[in-house]
Specification:
With 110 residues, this protein is of the alpha+beta class. The protein has helices spanning 6-12, 15-24, 31-38, 42-55, 80-109; strands at 29-30, 58-63, 66-74. The protein has a three-stranded antiparallel sheet. The radius of gyration is 21 Å and the shape is elongated.
Length: 110
């Protein structure tokens, strides 16, 4: 596994963070809105968002008129390394299956 994929998979492994990502896929939200929608406390949501930020899955912006109000949004391009890794696995699996099929065909011909 490439180093780029590991932090993403760790962040995606948690069901709460998966639900946060699903909510953010519908549009940007403030941390408080996410906490309310998820039924979690602000500190718990903060921990989840911090991990998602570090993994690069979400981004945030503080409003100029209120630095406490942070808006979070999903960065869909952050999934590119995961897609590439899964594509590599799929290609390798397809090649192994084709090789096994050829092996069986040769055995049957003998």
């Amino acid at each position: 596994m490439t180093a780029d994929v590991a932090p993403l998979l760790v962040a995606l492994a948690d069901p709460t963070r998966q639900r946060v990502i699903k909510l953010l896929s519908q549009g940007p939200l403030r941390a408080g809105e996410l906490a309310r929608a998820m039924g979690t406390s602000a500190p718990t949501m903060s921990r989840h968002l911090r991990l998602l930020l570090r993994a690069g899955i979400v981004a945030d912006e503080r409003r100029a008129d209120d630095a406490r109000a942070r808006v979070f949004w999903l960065r869909p391009e952050s999934m590119t390394p995961v897609r590439a890794w899964l594509d590599e696995l799929q290609t390798a699996g397809d090649e192994q299956l084709a090789s096994f099929r050829r092996h069986l065909e040769r055995r049957g011909a003998a």
